[in-house]
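User: Please predict the structure of the protein below. I'd like the answer in structure-token form so I can feed it into my own downstream comparison script.

Assistant: Understood. Taking the following sequence of 162 residues as input:
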Amino acid sequence: MKAPGKVFTLDDEDYENESSFSHWTISSSLSDHKLVYRLNQVLGSNFKRSKSDHVSHLKGHHFEHVTYTWYDSFEDIQWCILMNRGRTRSEENHGEVLHRNILASKPPVDYIVVAMDEIDSEQANNMLTAIRKTQGVTYATALEPSVSQRAELNIELENILL
């Protein structure tokens, strides 16, 4: 009889979500630049418009989502604000503007804030509190994507970094 080979055990961290991103959603009637300006004031951040917008894909169309980024060198965290609604021009429909939301939800989501690095629960709660205090934000919540949404969100957000 053959002796058993090595036995491997799985730790709790083997079951954790592969993404260490933290997400928050914002509903606001403010324009992107006005919202970012106000968030910069409240958060003490320095979000700036990215040189290129994030692109998502659906049914052969490429949708551009307005993107702002900030690297917090003190905390060593890369941050991103992404407009949920992307747009493109359809050549098949004579230049008609088409729109696509990365996240479809009720209430509607206008912006997605992403911490591209791990943050602790206190930092996450402080971020949500600060976002909610920002003038012009009508609704904000932490986003915990379902298993089915997780893969799509990671695909959508993986290429945002500067």
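That's the full token string. Confidence is low (pLDDT under 50) at residues 10-19.
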